[in-house]
Amino acid sequence: MSNNRLSGKWILITGATSGIGKATAYQFAGEGANLYLTGRREDRLISIRDDIQSKFSVEIEIYSFDIRDREACKSCVESIEGPIDILVNNAGLASGKDPVDQADFEDWDKMIDTNVKGLLSMTRFVSERMKKSNEGHIINVGSIAGHEAYAGGSVYCGTKHAVKAITQATKMDLHGTGIRVSAVSPGLVETEFSEVRFHGDKEAADSVYSDINPLTADDIAEIIIFMASRPPHVNIMDTIVLPTDQSSSTMVHRSSKK
């Protein structure tokens, strides 16, 4: 698919311990790309690294830290001696679904610090390096919530609208360079996302995906690979990706026959 454009490249993926980040790591490795994997759970990073290397002949470095910690982000990027050809800003979460007048401030801070500030920190430190070499690709994992809002999602939708704006403005800031900037904006993807949003309530999380055929992490990873493997003169700015059973943030067709 990629005409070997990704072979030998070095890909930095945040939030690589589960979901879209993990699936993206495997698919890049399948294309012959080397990996820098980051996440909070070091045991998972080690397990994923070892499993990928048992399947593919690629190099992998792991960095365990919380992306909300700006100094840790800086330390990670500065400690990478080799090239960073592609940055996948995948780390993100939803926390809570309370109305704005009842929401928990800790949930708000967690989403803003991760989805916006963490993404900005990594972009800041990596883009500086990319600009010196006049090449690279920044791919942000956004959401359908970055294109439309819904009740109970005031802050989550706000953070994903921010990701959309940051993607557009970053492309403008890097105008005239060889650096590409992209986003992928999925709808319902069955990962740990809803379990995190509902603070570990698995029943509530499962109900989000009940009686539909949701997207999978691999579906989104395939699109990220497609974006990354286009010729250098092709920049895909954004892709809105929904399961066939979903037509907007709030329109979801459910059928017990599925």
TrEMBL record:
Superkingdom classification of source: Bacteria
SUPFAM superfamilies: NAD(P)-binding Rossmann-fold domains
UniProt cross-references to Pfam families, sorted A to Z: adh_short
Record family assignment: Belongs to the short-chain dehydrogenases/reductases (SDR) family.
Keywords associated with the record: Oxidoreductase
Gene3D superfamilies xrefs: NAD(P)-binding Rossmann-like Domain (3.40.50.720)
Species name: Rhodohalobacter barkolensis
InterPro entries registered for this protein in UniProt: NAD(P)-bd_dom_sf, SDR_fam
The protein's name: NAD(P)-dependent oxidoreductase
Gene Ontology terms, MF aspect: oxidoreductase activity, acting on the CH-OH group of donors, NAD or NADP as acceptor
